[in-house]
Amino acid sequence: MAGSGPSRRRRSGSAGRLAAFLAILLAVVLSVTAYETERAFTNQSIASTTRGLVSEVDSFSRATAATTAASLRPATVAYLQGRVLVQGESLMIGLRSGERFGSAGSAPLLASREVRSLLARPPVSTVTHRMTLGGNDTLLLVSPIHQDGATVGTLLVASDLAQLHADQNRVLVLVAGEALVALVAAVAGAYLLLRRLLRTVGSITDTAASIESGDLDRRLGDQGTDDEVGKLAATFDSMLDRLQAAMVVQRRLLSDVSHQLRTPLTVARGHLEVLARQPSADIAEVRESVAVVVDELDHMRALVERLLLLGRALEPDFLQVEHLDLRTFLSDLTDSARVLASRRWSLAPVPDVVLEVDVAKLRGALLNLVDNAVGATGPDDSIEVRAVRSPVDGSLVLSVEDSGPGIPDGQLSTVLSRFGRMGSADREGSGLGLAIVTAVAEAHGGTFSLGRSTLGGCRAAITLPAARVTLGAGRSPVGV
Fold it and tell me: How much is the pLDDT for 316?
């Protein structure tokens, strides 16, 4: 437990640093977004206000379009008296005669020197001004008044932007609040997610450390999710299962090897010690002892070679895959088996298919099964090599069947185990033959099994998956 605290603090610190970086990044992005939103709102509001002022100018122009110079003054007064303006807007008119007229509420504006200056000097065309009048930000639209082709006065429409600023502040507060909520939610979610991810990574680290110290039973377990984290944990546990199985096999192999090599080494040492204690060397006894020692050494060499083959079965490059014509292969195999012993040999009809296999290792495995069948039968017994393709899943079963006594059901697990033998029939063997056959079958993605043959004896079968079977042009997909 002492080591878990610092590890947890490191994981929390990593999540905090990443969350802080994300917070800074999001804060910058959201600040720019809020600024642009507020600027767009302000520009849109100013444009809308300006359009309202332009509309007011157009309305005055239409109302006074039919007047003459003499009737302009009464028409202006009548327009101002009858016109209802939008709240915050004011209308002011300055004529060449020096007279100034204003709508209701325009007196404070007329008191401004800037406004009086604008009214006294009509512009050439309509222009806008923005200034502070009476402590308020004000937008002014100044337009010349034309009468009979001459400029006779100035029309000034003013709009108080106080309400615009109030709306602008509300929008800014709203955007800032939403940005803050989004920032907090995003950072909190990211922090929790990072904590979860880093917790899994930390669990992997702790589990790997425990395994390094010898605890092979530690696992991450189900993470409760089917995402990348869950798949990572499941893959890691699967890898640990395979590593544990390999280490268990390795330990058992070393134990079995030490046990199996002890006997031939003891026999060889005993004969050499007896030979050394003899006062006079009898050439016949020396030759007999040497023959026994050499025989035991040959047995150990064969045992070591088979153990090396079993060890290589765990390596990824164990198989050297090539194309194999099944009919030719089994025909040659049966011909080679006939010279081993006098039996009633036969080869059942073979499917016309091509395999993707390691030819040498598959041949060695089948010859091992043939050799076992020869050892379990007599001259009058039958041995048959068969190849049958499943019409269901397309797998291929290669079997060696005999008419011998067979294997009792109670001894099947013993025979299949490493260094397992069945009575005295296999006393001269290493007990690794079927283990090698199993390793070759599993390396090809298949299985090995023992059972009762239709001939009355044993049936030893290697099942290859459909992926190992390829069909030539014009060949039947299933059948013999």
Answer: 59
